[in-house]
Specification:
The chain is an alpha/beta fold. The chain folds into two domains: 237 residues, Rossmann fold; 87 residues, no CATH class. The chain is built from 18 helices and eleven strands. Helix 3 links the parallel strand 1 and strand 2. Helix 8 crosses helix 11. One of its GO terms (biological process) is methylation. Keywords: Methyltransferase, Transferase. One of its GO terms (molecular function) is methyltransferase activity. InterPro entries: Methyltransf_12, SAM-dependent_MTases_sf.
Length: 419
Amino acid sequence: MTTPSGTDARDTELAAQYEAYPYPERDPRDEAKRLLIGSPSHLREIDYWVFGARRARHQPLKALVAGCGTGDGAIMLAVQMARANRPGEVVCVDRSRHALDIAQARAKARALSNIRFIEGSITDLERLDLGLFDYIDCCGVLHHLPDPDAALKGLEAHLAPGGGMGLMVYAPYGRTGVYMIQEALEQLTPFSEPPATRLDVAKRVMRHLPVTAWLRENGNFGDHLSGGNAGLYDLLLNPRDRAYDIGAFLDLIDRAGLESSCLMEPARYDPEFFLPDPKLRARVEGLDWREKAKVAECLTGNMATHVAYVVRKGERVTPPDYMAADTVPIMREIPGSELAKHIGPDGILPFSFGTLVVPVPLPQQARSILPLIDGERTLGDIAACMAERGLSENRFHKTWSKMFPILERLNRVLLRPPA
């Protein structure tokens, strides 16, 4: 385990935690059964939200996973690149040897040749001399560091021209109850005690947690509470655990010379999606996007994290015209035929923003159009298919003009970059 620059006592304890209990807890044998999917660092999201669906797929993608842990994001991206025959490499940096060993075993189980692992701290990238990257993932790391601002600026310095990042930090309101238990445990089992001792105390507290504890009412932590020793330790015993409301997160991004190209999912940060009252919507329309995001976070109360794709200030790429006949829509993950099954006869798609399910109205024809989106057909091809089924070109384009912006903001339908 290497010793990074800019450490303090809590950072030393953090390093001990992740060496004892690498997070998230993963078994390499599970790679034969499933691929974990999420945001950030989904390849199709990177193509669209970072590069605006304009970066050619044949162009090699050099990616850095800064603080890879046991490898969820790194494995996902490397697998997706391999499956799509995309050239490039995923470089994984973490200071926990134990975590890297698990991530490396997962990569070996999948016979991945486009990924490599380096033991080291993301705050020491200059010393590691890894060069510049087209894309950098820093997921669940910044909020644990002694100086998040310096760390993010250091990552920005390693972005290649036109590159971007995927970031995730904790958010306060969706973590209601967590910090109360953390504070109690800091008194019951100080950071100076061995990780195994602290974990034993935490388990005892959870067995006897009063029914009035706010954590009992919070349904956002199934992955931590059912994630074995590593999950419980990371949730309740982490020696440094900041939370950023959306304003503070955007300020952090801004101070690093970056700007958000997408908050994930975009619709989650727009109160219009869960405030059907016309008078309230009229008030929402008068807000700028940052103010809307603040209102959404405060009203929903269930955002436990914030995920953003970011680029350097002034370098945000505008995607192609989604109404152009030669543009190619692509499903982010769920096949169009599967998504269509969830749309009711009334055109309503029940959509989950975490634990909040919101009814999203779509044009009636969406159920017929979605199965035609295969990542190969152009919009013109899809229009021709629908014309054979009796939907005129004019009606198709009216439908698509309403349908795509909604599904794009839900991060379900994106555009494919050129070959």
